[in-house]
Amino acid sequence: MEALNGESRKKTIIVKLSKVAGNKIGKSELDSMIKEVSELFQLTDQAEKLVSKAFNHIVEAERRVHGLDEETDPHFHELATVDTIFDIVGFAHLLNELHFPN
Predict the structure, then answer these.
(1) pTM of the model
(2) Residue ranges of the chain with pLDDT lower than 50?
(3) Can you name the residues that pair with 25 across neighbouring β-strands?
């Protein structure tokens, strides 16, 4: 991502996320959005692992609900909202900052 100051970077990420909100997106687009928000929060390795684990559980649940195998890329609707991504990444950041145990 281009070098931007903190506030400009936040706005750029929110604009990118809002463009896909409400649309069906695949796992690769979701992963990209999660990465950008995680970088914005400057997550530690431990917090990044928590975010990854949380989203992997959600991806697996989507596959089960829709009867997809592990090779099939599910499409996300509500998961791809700005709120959901910020909620999960922000929560992981908060737990890390509070030194909450694994």
Answers:
(1) 0.70
(2) 1-4
(3) 76
